[in-house]
Write a structure and sequence with these properties.
By secondary structure, the protein is mostly beta strands. 0% of the residues lie in helices and 25% in strands.
Length: 367
C-alpha cells in the first residue's frame, strides 16, 4: 500500500506517486512542469474524463506573463463544495462563448434579465434597465434635466412644416455657426417674422409690414437703457404717420432740432410756455391765419422794452379789420362794431394823442 515512487534531493522528498496514481510535489518551494525548447505542454484527459484544477481558498491560477492557455474543449468552472456548474467557456466554431450560470457583475454592477427587446440602458455591456421605446422606434431626442434636446444639438437646424428651410413654417437655423436665426412664416401669403441673434434684429419677411401690437396688446414701452442718461431712440424713415394720435406728451422735452424749414399741415394749438425763434413763417406759401378758439383773446406782447412791429413794404400794407383793399394803404382800418368809432386812441401818459408827419416833418398833431 506504499507509494509507487518517491524522488528526493539531499534527503528532502520532492515528489511522490501514490498507489492511487496521484502525483504530488513536496517541499516549500515553487514547482514547475515545463517542456524543453519552448515546445507545447499538453495535459489531456482520455475519453470523457475531465481536467480538474483543484484550488483552495488561498490559491490562484496564474498563467504567467505573455502566456496563453489553449483549450481543445470546453472549460467548466465548478463549485468546490457542491460541484455545481458556475460558468463555462465553450467554442461556437469561431469565438469563445462565456456562459454564466449565476449573476454576471462588472465593476460591482449587476446585470438584470430583460424579458422584451425594449429600449435598454447598459453599463459596460451589461443590461441595467429598460423602458418603453417610442412608437416609431429609436428617437433622435433626449430628455435631460427637464429639457428636450436633439441628439446633435450643436450642429442641426430645426425646421417644422416642411423638409426644406426655404418653405418651413418655423425654423431655427445657424446653430452650427453660433449665429441662430428664428423665423416664423405663413405659407398662405408668404408673410413672416425673423429674429436674428447675431445682430439683435427683429424684422418681417419679403418687405411686408412689421406690426407691433394689436387688439390684445396693452401699452408699449420703448425704453433704451431704461430711460437713463445717454439713451437714444432712433427712427430712420423718410416719412412718419401717427394715425389716431390726439395727444403727444413730452414732459421732459426741451428742444426740437429740425431742418431749416419745418412745415405743419392742419391747425396747431399751443397751450402755455413760449415758441422761441428768430423768424416764424406760417402758411407754407399760402395765406395763413393766427387765431384763437372758443372766443378767447389773442394777445401779442413784446418782451421787456421790445416793440410790437407790424410792417409792410412798397406794395403791401397792414390791414386791420379787412381782408383786402382795392387801393393799397400802409395801414387800413376797415371794420365796424355797432355805432362805435372805427379807431379809438387812448393815451395813458401826457404826450400828444396823435402826430402826423411827412418825410420826417410834423404836419399835424392833436394834443
Amino acid at each position: 500500500g506504499g507509494d509507487i515512487l518517491t524522488a528526493s534531493a539531499s534527503g528532502t522528498t520532492r515528489l511522490f506517486v501514490t498507489s492511487a496514481g496521484t502525483l504530488t510535489f513536496s517541499g516549500a518551494i515553487a514547482t514547475d512542469i515545463t517542456t524543453d525548447t519552448n515546445n507545447p505542454l499538453n495535459i489531456g484527459a482520455n475519453g470523457t474524463g475531465n481536467i480538474v484544477l483543484g484550488l483552495d481558498s488561498d490559491t490562484v491560477l496564474d498563467t504567467g506573463t505573455g502566456s496563453n492557455v489553449i483549450l481543445a474543449t470546453d472549460l467548466n468552472f465548478l463549485d468546490a463544495e457542491s460541484g455545481n456548474l458556475l460558468a463555462e467557456i465553450t467554442d461556437n466554431g469561431t469565438n469563445g462563448v462565456l456562459n454564466v450560470t449565476g449573476r454576471y457583475d462588472i465593476n460591482g454592477t449587476a446585470g438584470v434579465t430583460v424579458a422584451t427587446a425594449s429600449c435598454i440602458t447598459s453599463t459596460l455591456g451589461i443590461v441595467t434597465g429598460s423602458a418603453a421605446c417610442p412608437a416609431s422606434g429609436s428617437s433622435n431626442w433626449d430628455v435631460i434635466s427637464g429639457a428636450i434636446t436633439p441628439k446633435l444639438t450643436s450642429t442641426l437646424d430645426l425646421i417644422l412644416g416642411s423638409t426644406a428651410t426655404a418653405s418651413a413654417e418655423f425654423a431655427v437655423t445657424g446653430i452650427n455657426d453660433s449665429a441662430p436665426v428664428a423665423t416664423l412664416s405663413a405659407t398662405t401669403n408668404g408673410n413672416g417674422i425673423s429674429l436674428t441673434g447675431s445682430n439683435a434684429t427683429i424684422q418681417s419677411l419679403r418687405n411686408n409690414t412689421l406690426n407691433i401690437g394689436g387688439g390684445t396688446t396693452g401699452n408699449i414701452i420703448l425704453a433704451p437703457l431704461n430711460g437713463a442718461a445717454g439713451s437714444l431712440l432712433t427712427v430712420n424713415a423718410v416719412n412718419q404717420t401717427w394715425s389716431g394720435t390726439t395727444t403727444l406728451t413730452a414732459s421732459s422735452l426741451t428742444n426740437i432740432t429740425s431742418a431749416a424749414t419745418l412745415a405743419f399741415s392742419g391747425d396747431i394749438t399751443i397751450t402755455g410756455n413760449d415758441i422761441t425763434n428768430t423768424t416764424l413763417n406760417l402758411g407754407n406759401g399760402g395765406a395763413a391765419t393766427l387765431g384763437t378758439v372758443s372766443d378767447d383773446d389773442l394777445t401779442i406782447t413784446p418782451n421787456g422794452t421790445g416793440n410790437l412791429v407790424l410792417t409792410g413794404d412798397f406794395d403791401s400794407g397792414v390791414l386791420i379789420g379787412a381782408t383786402g383793399a382795392t387801393t393799397e394803404f400802409p395801414l387800413l382800418v376797415r371794420s365796424g362794431i355797432g355805432s362805435n368809432a372805427a379807431l379809438a386812441i387812448d393815451n395813458l401818459n401826457g404826450g400828444d394823442i396823435l402826430t402826423a408827419s411827412a418825410s420826417g416833418t410834423t404836419r399835424l398833431f392833436v394834443t
